[in-house]
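Reminder to self: tokens first, then the designed residues, so the page reads top to bottom the way the pipeline ran.
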């Protein structure tokens, strides 16, 4: 009896203590990209809501924690990056509802959202709840490529990959004949988009189609597998070699033409006139030398009898 009486006295002195309780009826939310996500959060508090504060935070594996929404004294504060997308709760002090809605959800919005509610002096208890949001995205158009020598008897590998898609897409390969009829592939294919065809033969040439699929939808890409792929590479190499030879011939011709122009440099008109005037003078000088030589000989012959 005494312990019970003591407890009653203690309660009468301290008063009845109420604890705040914050809950969410839906801890996991899945939406498709572009749709709206409703993040539900309710609370129970015995105190008046004159000092009520509500805060929503977001965190993901690729981002640090950031504030999405804040409420205090009847005022809504929405972070700049979420303005125009967040629908705040209506009269949360009366409805005890702190739920928000986010429109146009993107892949980067997937993560954990935390609802925190404080109502002084109700500060003890369970004051927050988490909502895990997953955003589904259709696979983007995949990229198909071929690796290896596209010749009979060789190993050829086809790859297919989508840059975007949630959940992660799975890939399948099929072969299309001339009538676009779907045919099974004879090589080894994996769900990651790799198709290996060993000892390829002419019966395996043709058009191949890859399909990337997840829970939201699918996308496809096609690639032509034929010996022309290898022939095109060879033709390109031959054309490149011919162009290189032509370029070398042009360089050689230019150098030879430049040297020829320097060897036969044209004479200026003034230089030509000077050469014309100097030519008779040179001829006269030559004639004088020729005439003087016989005269000297005659003089020598005239002197000999006197000796």
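Designed residues (307 positions):
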């Amino acid at each position: 009896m005494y312990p019970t009486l003591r407890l009653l006295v203690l309660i009468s002195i301290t008063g009845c203590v109420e604890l705040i309780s914050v809950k969410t009826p839906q801890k996991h939310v899945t939406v498709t990209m572009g749709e709206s996500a409703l993040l539900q959060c309710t609370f129970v508090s015995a105190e008046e809501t004159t000092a009520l504060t509500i805060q929503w935070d977001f965190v993901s594996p690729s981002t640090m924690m950031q504030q999405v929404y804040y409420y205090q004294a009847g005022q809504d504060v929405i972070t700049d990056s979420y303005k125009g997308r967040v629908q705040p709760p209506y009269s949360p002090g009366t409805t005890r509802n702190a739920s928000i809605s986010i429109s146009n959800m993107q892949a980067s919005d997937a993560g954990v959202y935390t609802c925190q509610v404080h109502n002084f002096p109700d500060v003890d208890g369970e004051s927050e709840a988490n909502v895990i949001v997953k955003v589904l995205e259709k696979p983007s158009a995949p990229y198909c490529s071929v690796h290896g020598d596209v010749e009979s008897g060789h190993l050829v590998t086809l790859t297919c990959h989508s840059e975007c898609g949630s959940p992660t897409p799975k890939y399948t390969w099929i072969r299309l004949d001339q009538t676009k009829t779907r045919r099974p592939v004879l090589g080894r294919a994996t769900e990651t988009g790799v198709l290996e065809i060993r000892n390829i033969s002419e019966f395996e040439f043709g058009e191949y189609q890859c399909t990337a699929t997840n829970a939201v939808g699918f996308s496809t890409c096609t690639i032509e597998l034929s010996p022309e792929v290898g022939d095109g590479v060879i033709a390109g190499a031959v054309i490149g070699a011919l162009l290189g030879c032509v370029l070398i011939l042009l360089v050689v011709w230019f150098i030879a033409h430049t040297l020829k122009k320097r060897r036969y440099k044209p004479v200026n008109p003034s230089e030509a006139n000077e050469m014309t005037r100097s030519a008779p003078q040179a001829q006269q000088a030559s004639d004088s030398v020729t005439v003087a030589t016989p005269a000297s000989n005659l003089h020598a012959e005239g002197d000999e009898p006197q000796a």
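The domain at 18-136 is CATH 2.60.40.10 (Immunoglobulin-like).
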